[in-house]
Amino acid sequence: MKLRVVSSKNEIDDLNRNEQMIHLAFRAANTDIFKLLQNCPRIRAIQVPSSYRKTLSKASEMFLAIQGVELIEGDVWGHRKDIDEYYNIDDMIIKRIDRLCASGANSSEVASAVSRETKLSPELVKYLIKQRS
């Protein structure tokens, strides 16, 4: 599974229309969110760092909710955009999530365990769990 990392407003115009998961590594304004959804109609999740999440307007949050786009708080630790524009979520992580869910752990326990092991945000792990079920 891939998470497209967007570092600046200027990259929004160059995004593939089929992007489904995006990490915004800049402080997005309402116009940026609107433009992003226009350019990527299939988007299902946007991840933003916690410091940027606190400054996102209520209008943007409501617009994303109306469009069915999930807003996730988290970061992409250790990712270098100059090497690859995508942050890859390894298949082993997905299998680990599936195993923990199959063992009877609830989503919070799975998110906590996988987050500790992989440095993925707990909210992203919960999103992945929801997509798998």
Please provide a written account of the structure.
With 133 residues, the protein is an alpha/beta fold. Strand 2, helix 1 (30-39) and strand 3 (45-48) form a beta-alpha-beta unit. The chain has a 5-stranded mixed sheet, sandwiched between helices. It has 6 helices and 5 strands.
Features:
133 residues; alpha/beta; Rossmann fold; five-stranded mixed sheet; globular
SSE map:
Layout: E1 2-6, E2 21-24, H1 30-39, E3 45-48, H2 50-53, H3 58-67, E4 70-73, E5 86-88, H4 91-102, H5 107-118, H6 122-132
Parallel strand pairs: 1-2, 2-3, 3-4
Antiparallel strand pairs: 1-5
Kindly estimate the percentage of residues that lie in beta strands according to DSSP.
15-25%
Terminus-to-terminus distance: 16 Å
Query: Structural class of the secondary elements?
Result: alpha/beta
Proportion of helical residues: 40-55%
| CATH-derived topology of the largest domain | Rossmann fold
Annotation, overall tally of beta strands:
5
**CATH domain class of the largest domain:** Alpha Beta
Number of helices: 6
Oligomer: single chain
What is the arithmetic mean of pLDDT?
A: 90
At CATH level 2, the architecture of the largest domain is: 3-Layer(aba) Sandwich
Described by strand count, sense and barrel closure, the largest sheet is:
5 strands, mixed
The topology string of helices and strands comes to EEHEHHEEHHH
Tell me the domain tally.
2
Low-confidence stretches: none
Shape: globular
Radius of gyration: 15 Å
Strand order of the largest sheet: 4-3-2-1-5
